[in-house]
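User: Can you predict the 3D structure of Helix-turn-helix domain-containing protein? Sequence below.
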Amino acid sequence: MSLNFLTTQTDSAREHPLPSTKYELDHLLTSEQAAGVLGLSPKTLANWRVQGIENLPYRKVGKAIRYKYGDLLAFIDLQKRENTSQK
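Assistant: Sure. Here are the predicted structure tokens for Helix-turn-helix domain-containing protein:
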């Protein structure tokens, strides 16, 4: 049985790789950087902001959208599930 599926990346992950930079918890990231941390596309984050789908805090600095790195880590931690029946 081949385990190639474990090493294949989604298109989004290839386009927005995880950052190699270590950030401080209070560092403000752009949507592109935040998407890279979460393994999502910036468009997904924009959709979440508009539709209020996920409870992911962001800041608006002028016209710029920024995400606090510590908030991203907390969001990831909140996504933990013990089994597939949990929402």
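The chain has a mean pLDDT of 82. Residues 42-51 form the longest helix (10 residues).
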